[in-house]
Amino acid sequence: MSDPTVLVLASLAEGEKHGYAMMEDIQRFAGVRLGPGTLYGAITRLEERGWIRALESGDRRRPYAITGAGKQYLEEQLTTLDQVVKTAMRRLRPA
Amino acid sequence: MKTLVRWSVRLYPAAWRARYGAEMEALLEDVSPAGGDLWDVVRGGLFMQMANLSFWKILTGCTLAGVLAAGIWSATLPKRYVSKAVVRVGGDPPSLNRLQAAQMATLSRASLAEIIRRPNLNLYSSERKKLPLDDVIEEMRTRDLRIRQVDGTTLAMEFASENPGTAQATVRALVGRLMELNAAGGGAAPMAVVRPASLPPRPEGPDRRRVMGSGLGAGLVLGLVCGAIWSLRRRKERWNLGRIAGFAVAGMALGVMVALLIPSEFVSTAVLRTADGSKLQSAVAQALSDDSLAAIIRQEGLFSRELRRNGMSEVTGKMRSQFISVQVAPAGPAAALTVSFRYSDRQAAQRVTRELVKRLVGPQTGNEVVDAASNPWAPIYPNRMLIAILGTVLGILLGLGASRFRRPKLATA
To answer: Is residue B326 part of a domain?
Structure first.
């Protein structure tokens, strides 16, 4: 699982975060360090698609939050991934 | 490293930097960027630029790239020094005819091969290591050597080389050869060197402005094509790319099929010289007579399909008018002539030309062979690559048409 868009959505599912906080969180829960270019590439795409939104902030470190459409997309992705994981596990450990 | 990574953020489009630039800056302050981050930011910037490409940006980029590439390429081209000499012939028009015959003989394979191999000139040494001598001679004839008649009595000779001394020495050798061949066989035209081979003081080429102009044109065309494809891709709801690609592939396949169905044609050529042009007409007429050609056709088993449908006289007539070319230059007391035969079989083309030469050369005719029948390696027809490209272009155009004017789908209840 290394799709940056899913990783960003998964990070924001917990609550609003700015860029650096997302990087730290993703490294903690997925063991993947997204580079600054990759992270902001994913943020740009997600915002364009309406799956995340930028929150008002006086600081340059602007926080982002996941939208309803973003949650729905993340659920679809995780359901698919869950099926893949369950099938693969079943095949690895036959009864 | 941090400064370099921050600087590389400038690779992102201005609109993107206006929206996310401050955030990215803050992020780079928080992390300690490593070498991998530099590449990550550079790659992100390039992707973002590509995502924001427009037709005009592509057109401008390709045009500039074309000019830049042509500029770099032209800087690597060697300088070309051109040495020139002028020769004048006196006497009556028949003398000029003799001069023309000597000119053709000077340009013959045997003559140029001897000049190329001269130790003091040692022309095309690197090309000779890679290419057959015939190809090197062809390169010399088409690219570097020019012999032209300025008027009825004057002949200008030019040779281009990377070295001014070599250019001059080669023109001197060519003028010497022309004089020798003019004098050979008696009845020489009075010939004088009006301007001896010059030592070129400065290079005449490469024409960098022309190369840059070509780069500009090529870049512009590439930009137009890439820009159009990009615009179509972005508006894929109006253009069906799959359909366009399908037509293009079908067009290319059709082009390749057509190209493969057309039989190849090879031309073998020989050059002859005659000291007595008066006997030439009768020798040519005899060699190309119905009986002579019929004997060659039977001997080589040519035109079998045509012979099933037509009589021998019709086939010999067709062979004479469409497949054999005899060019005499010029008529007069002395002349040179080229004999060519075009056929679908490479070896048969050479054998038939050889056979025609055999009929034209003999003790009674006074003709002698300057260049024997050539072995044609590559067909002169058809240009299969061009046909395949035309098929592809036609397919793309048809695909564009089919995609643009397709019937709208009917709404279902």
So the answer is: yes
CATH class of A4-92: mainly alpha
Domain residue extents for chain A: 4-92
Given CB atoms, is A52 within the 8 Å cutoff of chain B? no
Report ipTM (2 d.p.).
Answer: 0.88
Decide if B5 and A38 are in contact by the 8 Å CB cutoff: no
Q: Which domain holds residue B125?
A: 81-195
Domain final position from B195, B218, B242: B195
Contact A40 B44 (CB under 8 A): yes
- pTM score over 0.90: no
Cα–Cα–Cα angle for B115, B119, B124, rounded to 5 degrees: 60
Q: How far apart are the first and last CA of chain B?
A: 63
The CA-CA-CA angle for residues B371, B355, B104, to 5°, reads 25
Question: Does residue A2 belong to the interface with chain B, where contact is any CB pair within 8 Å?
Answer: no
**Averaged pLDDT for residues B132-151:** 82
Whether residues A41 and B41 touch (CB distance < 8 A) is answered with no
Check if A60 contacts B (Cβ < 8 Å).
yes
Residues B92 and B48 in one domain: no
Task: Establish if B120 belongs to a structural domain.
Answer: yes
| The two structure tokens encoding residue B156 | 């200008």
